[in-house]
Specification:
Blueprint: E1 2-5, E2 12-15, H1 26-42, H2 48-55, H3 59-67
Antiparallel strand pairs: 1-2
Helix pairs in contact: 2-3
The protein binds zinc ion.
Length: 82
């Protein structure tokens, strides 16, 4: 078992593998991720700032999906934020 901290509610929880979202917050995470996916289908060359503004979410939420390896910007238009 691994001890993880949820990125949304910051609760500590155990799971067999490394996770960043607890079970309570998983629906939230899925919803956020699919809205980003939808946005990228409509505007394929968006960068993290444009996605964040378009969806009215904090930029770090978008960047975090990239850090988690769940979002990829294949066309080289994405600019990584410091
Ligand atoms: Zn949580």
């Amino acid at each position: 078992m691994k001890l993880n901290q949820c990125k949304y509610c910051f609760k500590m929880f155990n799971s067999p593998d490394t996770r960043v979202v607890c079970n309570n917050c998983k629906p939230l995470d899925e919803a956020l991720f699919s809205s980003i996916e939808e946005y990228l289908k409509k505007y394929p060359n968006s960068n993290a700032i444009q996605i964040a503004e378009g969806l009215e979410i904090p930029t770090f939420e978008v960047v975090r999906f990239i850090d988690e390896g769940r979002l990829q910007f294949s066309k080289g238009k994405f600019e990584r934020l410091k």
